[in-house]
Amino acid sequence: MSVSISGAFTGARRQFALTRRRLVSTRRRFAVGIRRLATGTTAVSALAIALMGIIKEKTSGPALVVFVVLIVLAVLALILVARPATQESGTAEDATVRAVPPNNLPFRSRYFVGRKKEMALLERTLRPEKGPKGRRVSVVHGTGGVGKSQLATAYAHGTLTEHSLTRWLNATSPDRLLCDLLELATLIGITYHESKTVVLTRLWSWLRDHPDWLLVYDNVQLDGAEQSGEGPVDQQLRLQPLLPPEGVGEILITTQLREGWTGLCPDPVELTVYDEDDGLAFLRKRTGSTADERLRWLGRQLGWQPLALEQAGAYIEQAEIGVEGEDFEEYLQRLSAQSADSDAKTFELAIERIGAQQPAAEDLMRLCSFLASEDVPRATLFRYRSVLPDRLRLVMDDQLAFTRLVLKLVDHSLMTRHGDGRTEPVTYGIHPRVQIFIRSRLTGHERLEWSQAAVRLIEAAFPLAPDQLESRATCDRLMPHVDAVTAEPAWAADSDGELGAARDPEALVRLLHRAGSYQNHRCEWKSALAYFAREVELRGLGTGSEQCLATAHLATARQHYLLAHLDTAEAACGRALALCDAHKDDDAFQQVRAQCCRQFGGILRERNRFREASGYLEAALRIYELQGSGWEVIDWAVTEQEAGMIHRNAGRHVDALDCYERAGDLVGGGGSTGLEEHVVFRAMLRRDAGIVAQDRGDLDTAERELSAAHEVFRSKRGEEDFETAQVAKFLADVLRRKGQQCRAASRSTRNPLRKRRLRAQAHAHLATAHELLCPVLALLGKRRTTEAHTYAACLNKLGSLQWAQGHLHRAIDTLREAEEIYVTAYGPDHHYRAKTLSRLGPVLRAAGDREGAERALRTAERIFVASLGEGHPSLVAVYEFLADGAQDPARAEELRARAARIHRSLWGKSCPS
């Protein structure tokens, strides 16, 4: 009850504030108009009086009357001239409202009828007569072809004048939906930012400040990862990041998904086929006939399925069939002779008719049946038409003829066309049920030809360097088509080389590799693994060289490694290395061999087998040294950096810094200049140097290095980038430790001014740490199910920060969750679990659980000594915390002496006194 009252009060307060702003704005405009009118009237009156005094002596009678009339007309003209200026002098808020982009709704079908019950449900949910105003959500669900998008379009057009902003969003995938939301942000004038999260936050703020909007999320679907899951998916959790969290507006969602909407919309609208009355009304309107009995025969034969009725109506119109004539009887007989499926009955006759008139039109549909059902870019078709079969390509060489072909398909309701080519690009769409039907009609020969043509088209359009930031927008828009063309390609079946793959045998595997590389760059490792695994499968069938097969095995190994599947990663890397060993004398394999050695080193590093890991990195370095400048120098430098990571994990910080220095020398010290790849790599080296400084306890150096690295990553890679988040995570932990140091120093000083200054510094450090860590948690939280180990590392930092902020019980829960994740992923004796326990111990002691703290720290000590050795830097904090809780002073002194010895070893000969 309190929550609903609070929500109602908040909504009422916002509405009152908005009304008040509008009244103030109106009052200002009115006051400006009155002032201008008064000023103009006074000036004209004064002029009139002066002139009348002069003219009075010489003018009388009718002439004087005419003069006065002219003066009055001059005053009226001044008012009319001043009025536009008064309107233009509105506030900045009014200017913003007028900058709202026009709606992008699909054309409303002039044949739309009925659906009164469903429309009333939408009105009741989205525009209730009573209750507080706020964000209102309605969901329309139903099977394909029942008219969900048509209902949404009719509702949006019918309420167009009642909304300040109306926007249609393609929600077939999260990436596609995000693209449309970012495009909307650009259109309403939101300043560009490299962080998509920042842009979305600004968009949500704009929607909160500008009420009465409508957003239509059309065709929400499950992505590939969710389709294989168990049980219904909570759509609220899935869509939450892409829904405006507040504001006065409406969200209308169309989907085939029946389950999982309770959190967003307790009473979704289910759409089914027409009832007989609505279906008959539709056919009357679509055919222009009132022969109800004949139309009922048609509707019943098609099961009153809206899509089938539309197809039949379009056919009757295009074939100029008279419903009351014999040709209609013949049409009914042909329908009854077709498939039992109502859609298929109408599709087949329409396609046969078009195919007889324009064979290339059917070819275009065959191509589109293997692409995504929406957003097929016309520009892409024309730019890369050289890869298409000859008959379609020749028609496309004449753009006017191609346009007529498309319009013919649109007239038969077999294809949709969006955009006018002037204000927005032209795209095509084809209903999924039409796609399925067309593919079902293809012979084996035709399936090969058109599935492979679709692959070649998307492969030609997909950027060659998908890991570059400037390629992201193009990749985002093409990924639905990548998923479509790789879903069921008839590729390896082209054994005789007659067509299709024979023109470009490696197009599919190249596309899979590029799509995997793009997902890897976005740190979507599970998705990347799926693409690379399919590439391995196809290359194993003999597509491409053994070098390419080795590269594909290596790519899958890397994804398994990043997902913490170390056994699988080691096996895949072993297969890649075995292929390289079989071609020791072939220089072409040396680069792949070096990459395999680097990957093996990383896998063994995660297993704490540091000596073996260093051996593999040394082998890779020898390969790069032999090649010299023949390869990209960045690969050599990265190998030095990876060797440094092994030394750092093993506790050999001096050796690690030497490796980082050599890596920096290889790419040069160009600061913020030079190749962008080198700039980012130098930032990585500063990040690693900052982590070493943090391990040594040199927090000022750590903050300086990590802050510099973070700025570069934010500007070059964006805030949603995984590596940017990693740097922010480490920087937040450094600031947390500095905050705790300042707080401890404030307790030990008796100088009130110094105490106050230290407390202020502690508060500032902890606040900045919290500000840095929150976006990282949000980013990694989305990947929790597939990459729990990366999320657990962030939980470690969060738990320590919560402890520093005084939230002890919250910190304990957070660290326990991290410990559970590590035990599940790596086992109970891995040093990652020990790191969590070393943070948990002091928190438990602060909460009064001294026994629990001792037990956690002793377990951490045992794991560290067994897995990393007695001199590892991670033991410093463990021994210091154990010393703080020791009852025996001698025991405490011994523990501190151990910590001091390890700490000195981290600095080598340069250890500070």
UniProtKB/TrEMBL annotation:
Keywords noted in UniProt: Membrane, Transmembrane, Transmembrane helix
SMART domains xref list: TPR (SM00028)
Residues forming coiled coils: none
Protein name from the UniProt record: Tetratricopeptide repeat protein
The species this protein was found in: Streptomyces kanamyceticus
Membrane-spanning ranges: 37-55, 61-82
Cited Pfam families: TPR_10, TPR_12
Superkingdom of source: Bacteria
